[in-house]
Amino acid sequence: AVLGQRCPGVVAATLAAWMAGAVVMLVDDALPPARVAAMLEAAGASLGIALGDCAFPATAGLAVLHWDEMPRPAASGPMPSQFAAGGDAAYLAFTSGSTGKPKAILGSHNGLAQFLDWQRGVSGIGPGDRVANFTSLSFDVVLRELFLPLTSGAALCIPDQPELGPGPVAKFLATARITLLHTVPTLAMLWLQRWPDEAAAGALRTVFFAGEPLSDTVVARWRRRFPGCTVYNLYGPTETTLAKCAAQVPDPAPAGIQSIGAAIDGSQALVLDAGLRLCGRGELGEIVIRSPYRSHGYVAEGVPQPTFIANPWHGGEGGTLYRTGDLGRYEPDGRLAILGRRDDQVKINGVRIELAEVRAAMQACPGVADAYVTVVEQGGAKQLVGFAVAASADGGAAAVTAASLGASLRARLAAAMVPSRLVLADELPRNANGKVDRQRLLQTAAA
Are 181 and 329 a contacting pair, CB within 8 Å? Predict the structure, then answer.
């Protein structure tokens, strides 16, 4: 386990672990000690490397090496010709379990290498590019931020400060001349909402969005700030290694939630019904991933793996399927549309509602900087609750109110899809990976 914050030592420690034949687990020092301890226990970690002045929880029971105290070699030693086979385990990443305990997922070298090979090809990255490292260490996305540039001859640019608000991000993108960036839609909306007016557009040419459904509103606002920037929409759960579907978003972006395109090279993205039969175009089903480059699954013994299932049509290498729990459909052109989580599809008064669609409509309303929609249950009845962050008043424009937002939504959506409660918030709470913190919103909605 490597404990620290964004710094060059993370790269060196990761490579050292791989050269020793070990599996690396990156841990953000900003996480609560109890969370770190739970992750270490779930992973079965035996050795810790502490970067800087970071310290592992006393209860971890690890042998610990302190990076700053380790002797430095006088000269570089020979590189091994090969320090791991492609199918060997490379890293541990985590998702939240239904019990509240983190679940450790074992990723492979060939899964990481295959994704980076695809991303190098599609982005055209090369020695003249500069890639920002903004992602928390504890999320697998950080691996593409670190190793995409380092396997492409590009520069990896690491900000000094741990907190990355709109002002510091704007300054860093400009001064570091960042050309390629990975981010989450919610985090991008927060940046754009408070972007300094005097900030230069900089050199940014490519952005990869991932982690949440991407709306046309996010894309349009991003392009206004960064004209000419190429936008990609990535999709793929941690269990399938970084991303398994991608689409280049056209300009202008079509209305609503953006397509996730098609599976990347070497993988398949299927839409299956409840009986695991292939859906027709336009038919709603679950997105299921087939790939020889998926993860090795969950680490802890006894962790149920019902999401990994045998391929009913084909065995052998790559025959295992991963059920994502995400709803989707094939568009008429064969591309994939994602419609949110199965958990996000609700029926209210007999009407099926996609929360991602309602959120996209709220984001497009005048005076709204960002929005989120969730469901609460009161007295046995479900109701939609919408949260909206007001945009900064500009040029004398009237500030958004719950009443004006409701009127805008009624003009855009069927009556059953308009949230029965609309809450104006200063900002949407985010978790460590930049996504909306749904649990904190639910607590607010229930209050």
Answer: no
Q: To the nearest whole percent, how much of the chain has pLDDT over 70?
A: 90
Distance CA 222, CA 192 (A): 7
What H or E segment, with its residue span, contains residue 439? Answer: helix 438-446
CATH topology of domain 349-446: GMP Synthetase; Chain A, domain 3 (3.30.300)
Residue 243, beta-bridge partner list: none
Eight-class DSSP state of 273:
-
- Strand extents, DSSP E, 251-350: 262-263, 268-272, 285-290, 308-310, 320-330, 336-341, 345-348
Residue 375 has a CB neighbour count (10 Å cut-off) of 17
Which tokens is 412 given? 């855009």
Q: State the Cα–Cα distance between residues 29 and 56, nearest whole angstrom.
A: 9
What ranges do the domains of the chain cover?
1-72, 107-340, 349-446
Q: Which of 140, 112, 187 is nearest to 370 (CA)?
A: 187
- For residue 59, the one-letter residue type is T
Q: Two tokens at 33?
A: 């000690």
Round to whole Å and give the CA distance between 263 and 235. 9
Q: Is residue 161 predicted with pLDDT exceeding 50? A: yes
**Residue type (1 letter), 272:** L
CA–CA distance, 353 with 62 (Å, rounded to integer): 48
pTM: 0.82
DSSP β-ladder status, 351-354 and 368-378:
unpaired
216-261 pLDDT, tens digit each: 999 999 999 999 999 999 999 888 888 999 999 999 999 988 999 9
CATH number of 107-340: 3.40.50.12780
Instruction: Give dist(CA 364, CA 70) in Å, integer.
Output: 53
Element (H, E) at 188: helix 185-193
Going across the sheet that includes 24-28, the strands are 63-66, 47-50, 2-4, 24-28, 89-96, 102-108
